[in-house]
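for the recovery benchmark. tokens below, seq after
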């Protein structure tokens, strides 16, 4: 039964139409559970990047005079970093946390990582409106090119899903993966030019920065939102390639390990 259900997924990662309502239902449940019994509810998804922004403005706004409108520069990176950090952690734990469901129902395991991604996307898209207002207060001037943030977000989401699926599959067998990822996230934050401009990276270390996928996605987001540009062909091509490689790796590891999920939950 498990193999038959899982084969409803193609290598491209498409779920059978019959399971789409399940994914949406689980995603909506995840959204509600995140803010259950919370007084501020959805506002918490705004407070985290805003708190970091206040810290950055207090500490770094005068340290980087070459950055025009530092508040918009920093917040543009923080919005998408917060989405990445929160969603990757939720996707990573999705298979283990849903073990009781997977043991009793013939539901494809991949439903739960995908539902966590959709829940994160829902929160992010909902927060675009208040964040846009905050950016306008700080002097952001949107252009038609700013709408390119949506296809850029699509590529980022594919990358995030592939990476999250890889981590979730490994986490079923090695629970240290969750602890390791929690330790690595702060490191990724500091090696990604979120609080500082990319030109601060020394030329001899530029190749190291280039190995960080987040470096390229944050650069693309900044091009279309902060600079109001279209982004270069190299930026779009590289981020698309990274997304496809991450999806292929995540899917391949999931396919290789899924038969042992039940025994290791």
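predicted aa per position
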């Amino acid at each position: 039964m498990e193999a038959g259900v899982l084969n409803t997924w193609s290598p491209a990662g498409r779920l059978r139409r019959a399971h789409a309502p399940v994914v949406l239902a689980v995603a909506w449940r995840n959204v509600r559970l995140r803010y259950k019994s919370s007084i501020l509810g959805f506002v918490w998804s705004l407070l985290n990047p805003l708190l970091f922004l206040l810290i950055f403005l207090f500490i770094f706004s005068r340290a980087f005079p070459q950055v025009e409108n530092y508040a918009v520069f920093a917040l543009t990176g923080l919005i998408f970093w917060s989405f990445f950090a929160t969603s990757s952690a939720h996707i990573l734990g999705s298979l283990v946390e849903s073990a009781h469901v997977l043991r009793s129902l013939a539901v494809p395991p991949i439903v739960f990582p995908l539902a966590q991604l959709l829940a994160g996307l829902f929160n992010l898209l909902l927060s675009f409106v208040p964040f846009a207002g905050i950016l306008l207060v700080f002097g952001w001037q949107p252009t038609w090119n700013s709408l390119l943030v949506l296809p850029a977000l699509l590529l980022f989401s594919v990358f995030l899903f592939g990476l999250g699926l890889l981590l979730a599959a490994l986490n079923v067998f090695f629970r240290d993966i969750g602890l390791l990822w929690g330790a690595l996230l702060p490191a990724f934050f500091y090696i990604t030019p979120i609080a500082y401009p990319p030109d601060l990276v020394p030329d001899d270390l530029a190749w190291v920065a280039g190995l960080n996928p987040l470096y390229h996605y944050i650069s693309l987001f900044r091009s279309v939102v902060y600079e109001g540009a279209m982004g270069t062909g190299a930026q779009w091509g590289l981020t698309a390639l990274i997304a496809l490689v991450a999806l292929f790796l995540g899917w391949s590891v999931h396919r290789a390990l899924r038969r042992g999920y039940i025994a290791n939950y």
